[in-house]
Design a protein that fits this description.
Blueprint lengths: L1 H9 L1 H27 L4 H10 L7 H30 L7 H17 L5 H26 L3 H20 L15 H4 L10 H4 L9 H18 L1 H11 L1 H6 L4 H24 L15 H12 L4 H18 L11 H13 L2 H28 L1
């Protein structure tokens, strides 16, 4: 039994999983403490509601429909997480995923509402728009050594107001509200198909092929990064650009390509949400959408793994939606955002947790080897 525990701690995957679980549990504990301070009588019920989300609904169809809503928002969140994860694995911090998400939304909706394009062309246009914005950050990094975090933050705001401008007038804009037109009535061909998935979730029409496609993207990114020469070159460039250049790799091209791919993933994520008819774009919004920043939480909580990001994205969206179900007369719905923020903060200690587990496993191994040696000598 001791050997089995030791072997588990020696596994990098298990250490990452356990570190993430520690972050989640501590984050939930702190959230419960905050709820208790606000109103101790209902804090236990509130934290359970945040965790269970759709399971708190009274009927089966209501639970399925609520689960469908959570999954519909998990797909774009996962794409943003993959955008950040892909770039981070190659040594770049793509905080500009939020801006790439914005221009992806703008491109998809403009193509759908102004040009009446079908959904697959809208999806490709969104990917191209996100890739273009990512490539701008990449070019600034490669040729002028501008930190991608700085350029990404600036481009987030440029992207927001640019999208507000192009969607705020003409064909995409709903004349009676600050939102874009409803896609289902304006151009039904631009709505993502469900292929029968909506029927599995109480006829929830926002459940589309975006959900399985986002999972396929996660698998694809994992394969590219870990099983291809292309992925190896990108990671090598991220680890040491000078060494990559010495080895004959085109490091400038790789930096630009990495951020362009990250931008395309975030742009597709936006298209997954807005082409599912879950919501319309508000042309008067003055804050950067949280989806791109929540992707940071999902990818770090997932242990910087594309596959781990699938489960982390669902968990982040689960507690976010659960926070909207607690009693608003007593607790603020932002409590779920607080818990997410705490988990993000604790994710900074994931490396420390893994290191401590690795040290503990090494000590146990040395001890077991010493005991085994003594037994053999006897």
């Amino acid at each position: 039994m001791k050997n089995r525990k030791g072997s588990l701690l020696e596994s990098e995957g298990f250490r990452t999983f356990l570190s993430s679980m520690i972050c989640i549990l501590v984050g939930l504990l702190i959230g419960w403490v905050v709820l208790t301070i606000i109103n101790p009588s209902g804090s236990g019920e509130a934290i359970i509601t945040i965790l269970l989300n759709f399971l708190t609904k009274s009927t089966g169809p209501a639970r399925l429909k609520a689960l469908g809503n959570t999954l519909a928002k998990t797909a774009p969140l996962l794409m943003c997480a993959l955008s950040i994860c892909f770039c981070y694995k190659t040594g770049l911090f793509n905080i500009g995923a939020a801006g790439q998400y914005e221009v992806g939304a703008g491109a998809a909706l403009y193509a759908a509402l102004a040009w009446n394009w079908p959904w697959y062309l809208c999806l490709l246009f969104a990917a191209a728009a996100g890739a273009l914005l990512g490539a701008i950050s990449g070019a600034l990094k490669a040729y002028r050594n501008v930190n991608e975090v700085i350029s990404g933050i600036m481009l987030n705001w440029i992207g927001l107001y640019f999208v507000n401008m192009i969607l705020g007038s003409g064909a995409p804009k709903d004349s009676a509200s600050p939102y874009t037109k409803k896609l289902a009535s304006a151009n039904a061909s631009a709505v993502l198909p469900s292929l029968g998935l909506d029927k599995l979730f109480a006829n929830n029409r926002t459940v589309t092929i975006a959900i399985p496609l986002s999972i396929l993207f996660a698998i694809l990114i994992s394969v590219v990064l870990n099983r291809t020469r292309f992925g190896y070159e990108l990671k090598a460039t991220g680890y040491n650009r000078e060494a990559a250049r010495y080895a004959g790799m085109k490091e400038k091209k790789n930096v630009i390509l990495t951020l362009a791919i990250g931008g395309a993933l975030a742009g597709i994520g936006a298209a997954f949400l807005f082409l599912s008819t879950y919501q319309e774009w508000s042309t008067t919004q003055t804050s950067v959408p949280a989806m791109g920043f929540n992707g940071i939480a999902a990818t770090f909580l997932g242990g910087l793994s594309p596959i781990g990001s699938i489960f982390a994205s669902f968990f982040i969206q689960q507690i976010t939606d659960g926070g909207s179900l607690i009693d608003k007369a007593i607790y603020p719905s932002q409590i779920s955002d607080l818990i997410s923020s705490i988990i993000i903060y604790l994710c900074g200690f994931v490396g420390f947790f893994r290191f401590m587990m690795k040290q503990h496993a090494a000590i146990r191994r040395e001890k077991n080897d010493g005991e085994k040696k003594k037994e053999e000598e006897k």
